[in-house]
Amino acid sequence: MPEGAGTGHVLNKYLYGPRHPRTGGGSRDASYPPAVGAVARSRPDQNRYNFRLLAVNGSLFAVGGHSLQTMESYNPAQNTWTLAAPLPDTLVEFSACESLGRIYVIGGYTPRGRNMNVLRYCPAVDEWSVFDICRHHVRKQQMVSIEETLFLVGGFRRDSRTGESEDSLSVHSYNTDSREWNCLKVNTSKSGLSVSCTLHNDGIYILSRDMNPNTVGRHRIFLKYCVFTGVCEYVRGPPTEGNNMTLFSMYLPHPP
User: Which residue ranges are recorded for the region named Disordered (predicted)?
Assistant: First the structure.
C-alpha cells in the first residue's frame, strides 16, 4: 500500500485496497480478484489519506482519514459509494475493526487532544455512539477481531495514571460483551510502531521490527501470536524488501 493511503481489506474473495492516483491528490479503491489476477478501480467521492477500510455485512466502509470526519460505504455489486454517518469527531492515528457486524474505533487524537473513547458504529441504524472509555491512551496500533473480542496489536501506549509512555510490541484484548481489557503479551525488544498484522486461522500474524540498538530498527521480524494458547513464535522468512507493508489473509483458488 502507498505510504499514507490507508488500509485494505478482503471481501468476497477480493482484495480491496487504496492507492494514490498518478495525478492529483487523494486515493482510489482497487480490488484484486485472485482468480483472474486483474485489478479493478473505483473512486470514493472524497479523497482520503490515513483512513481505515473495513468489510462489514458485504459492504466496504472507508472510515475517517486525515482532516476528515466523514465515512463512506461501498457496494461492490453496484460499484457505488454513498455517505454514511460521520464520526463523532475528526481523528488521526486511530485504528478500527469490525466485530459482529459493527465497527469499533479506538485511540488516536481529536483536534482537542487524546481520544479516550471506544466508538461504535451500527450499520443497521447508521449511527455512531460512545461505547466505552479507555484506561490508557494508544495511537498507531493495529486491530483485528474474533467474534466479540477485539485485539489491539502494537502502537504507542500512554498510561493515564502514571503518564509513562512506551513503544513495545504488545497484544491487548477488549471484550465487547464484558467491556474488559486484558494485556496478553508485551515484548519491549520489538517495535510497536510500523506494525502490520492479520488474523489467519488460530493466529495473529505480525510484521514488526527489532529494537536492537545494533540494527536501529532495520531488522524486520515476522511473528505469530496464537490467540488460544497465548504463545508468540517466530515465523521463518519475513519479506526483506519494501516499506509500508500491509498483511492480508485470503484463500487463493487452486489452479485447475
Answer: 12-35
Contact status, residue 99 vs residue 150, Cβ threshold 8 Å:
yes
| Answer CATH for 135-245 from 3.30.420.10, 3.30.420.40, 3.10.450.70, 2.120.10.80 | 2.120.10.80
For 36, phi then psi, to 5°, come to -120, -15
* Most confidently modeled range among 35-39, 154-158, 197-201: 197-201
User: Exposed, middle or buried by CB within 10 Å (0-12, 13-18, 19+), for 206?
Assistant: buried
Give the residue from 84, 96, 91 showing the smallest Cα distance to 141.
96
Chain length of the chain? 256
**Distance of alpha carbon 215 from alpha carbon 196, whole angstroms:** 19
Integer Cα distance of 45 and 71 in angstroms: 10
Residue 39's pLDDT band, with cuts at 50, 70 and 90, is: very low
- Claim: this prediction has a pTM higher than 0.85: no
pLDDT at residue 227 above 60? Answer: yes
Per-domain residue ranges of the chain:
135-245
